[in-house]
Amino acid sequence: MSRKGRSENKESKTQKKAEETIKKTFANHLVITQSDNPEAKWFVVHTYSGQEGRVMVALKQRAETMKLTDRILEIVIPTQEQIQIRSGRKQQVTEKIFPGYILVKMILDDNSWLTVRTTQGVTGFVGVGDKPTPISDEEVASIQKFMNQDAPKYRAKFTTGEAVKIVDGPFAEFLGSIESIDEERGKVKVLVSIFGRETPVELDFLQIKKL
């Protein structure tokens, strides 16, 4: 393998290791440098969807390499923890609140702007024209509050009116249609035909499946 190939492979392994560390330690909030500098503002940065975590890792590394850790201070990926039903099982997942967007706290100047803007996976800043527009501390606080509040415990993959089959409980093998969905409790009401009339039956998400 050439020297260039070995170097690229080493960089790839280093970035992968950094990504795993950030996933375990910070998840959705990375503090590069703690600072109360009043010049520091929060900006919304647009990324390719699904690249938010990679951008967080790459931007941290670039800030350190470019010696801009006093200018690029914090990165937040707005997320919430939820429980989804997948293959008949409950799984805890991290859902992005604004897919394709991250928040970056920084002191904006030509160097910090260029570093963020040219980070792989970044498509641009949110702003008016070519000028990044900061968001208020109040907006950031609201987003962080939303991130930390109790989210719906379940995320339904079902829709009202959808035809389903009951797979567990006393009504197993019955067919019905979903009347209502309670994501908070992970429950659905299914209209089942019993003795010639439609009767609503409350069931757990795990007790039904799509037809």
General description of the model:
The chain has two domains: 11-146, 2-Layer Sandwich (Alpha-Beta Plaits); 160-208, Roll (SH3 type barrels), CATH 2.30.30. Helices cover 27% and strands 36% of the residues. It is built from four helices and 14 strands. The strands form four sheets. A five-stranded antiparallel β-sheet has the order 1-3-6-2-7, covered by helices on one side. Helix 1 (3-25) crosses helix 2. The longest helix has 23 residues, at 3-25. It is elongated and about 75 Å long. The N and C termini lie far apart (53 Å). Residues 21-26 have low confidence and may be disordered.
Percent of residues in helical segments?
25-40%
Architecture per CATH nomenclature, i.e. the level-2 architecture of the largest domain: 2-Layer Sandwich
Supply the number of helical segments.
Answer: 4
What is the string of helix and strand elements? HEEHEEEEHEEEHEEEEE
Tell the overall outline: elongated
What is the topology, as strand order, of the major beta sheet? 1-3-6-2-7
Rg, Cα atoms, Å: 23 Å
Keywords: Transcription, Transcription antitermination, Transcription regulation, Transcription termination
Family: Belongs to the NusG family.
Protein name: Transcription termination/antitermination protein NusG
Function: Participates in transcription elongation, termination and antitermination.
Question: Which features would summarize this protein structure in a list?
Answer:
Alpha-Beta Plaits, 4 helices, alpha+beta, SH3 type barrels, 211 residues, 5-stranded antiparallel β-sheet, Transcription termination/antitermination protein NusG, 2 domains
